[in-house]
Amino acid sequence: MLRCASFLVLALSLAMPVAAQLQRPFDQKALRGTIVFGTPPQATLNGQPARLAPGARVRDESNLVQLPATLAGRKAVVNYTTDLEGLLLDVWILTPQEQAKKPWPTTLQEAQRWVFDANAQAWVKR
Length: 126
Known about the structure:
Elements: H1 2-21, E1 31-37, E2 42-45, E3 48-59, E4 65-66, E5 75-82, E6 88-93, H2 96-100, H3 108-113, E7 115-117, E8 122-124
Parallel strand pairs: 3-6
Antiparallel strand pairs: 1-2, 1-5, 2-3, 3-4, 5-6, 7-8
């Protein structure tokens, strides 16, 4: 039993650095912006009032889902998607490495003009 537990700990410790190097797959519809979380469901996105959708998913830099109430007052660079009513649906708080990936569209018009490479998780301007 002890040998099995030791093997499991070893296997997990070896897998963790690999998992940390994987890039997160962002939705092709994801735009980039700066958010300030308020009292849920309120937020400010790119200086404009915004609201989180019911059931919105906010993922931190480790890709863990966070409760919006725990983020109140936090400002972050994010990739985000919206629902049909314009409410924030998926929000990914970006790591410095993800923030450095440019260009990334900040408006729907840019996303419509550029080409997204899902494998590279990168945008190319036409």
